[in-house]
Amino acid sequence: MDKSNRYIDMCKGAREIQAIWNHKTGDIFATEEREVLFWVPGKYGAPEIKNGFGITRTHNVVTLARYTWLPRYSQLIETAQDTAESSFRDVTFHFYTWLDTPYGSEERQRPKELFTTNEQVWLAYIMERRHAKVWNETEWVEIGGKG
Fold it and tell me: 117 near 4, Cβ under 8 Å?
């Protein structure tokens, strides 16, 4: 599982991916301090998560903490198959074809040369194919540079 600062930044900036997070026991997330935790109700982090915020209630005080979901490799593949016409076979074929295509605004490198883990490359694939955004090493930008 990728817990690198780069992957945390990629996930944090991928608002479209964060918006679909429906937390389950065992999900991995990062706190604002970049501490990586597994969500287990009542054990690690806040006992409740809503819209990317950990919610802790103690004595009439509610504390919110921003959490960034770090999808596992298997969760990214599931996300890539989320449309009705996307079978595992079709998604896998398109993914491996995409690995050898020019990537980003300068299009000098291929995704397989830019990303170092399965999680990073699958996240980049989903963001480009579904949301028309590419990673420029600091943020996701719309294809064509509109930001």
Answer: yes
| pLDDT tens digits, one per residue of 53-81 | 988 888 899 989 999 999 999 999 999 98
Q: What is the pTM of this model?
A: 0.89
Domain ranges of the chain: 5-142
In terms of residues, how long is the chain? 147
Bridge-based pairing state of the strands 36-38 and 48-50: unpaired
Tokens 């830019």 belong to 114
Buried b (16+ CB within 10 A) or exposed e, 106-124: eeeeebeebbeeebbbbbb
19-44: pLDDT as tens digits: 999 989 899 999 999 999 988 876 66
Q: Residue 61: beta bridge partners?
A: 58
Backbone angles phi, psi at 81, to 5 degrees: -95, 10
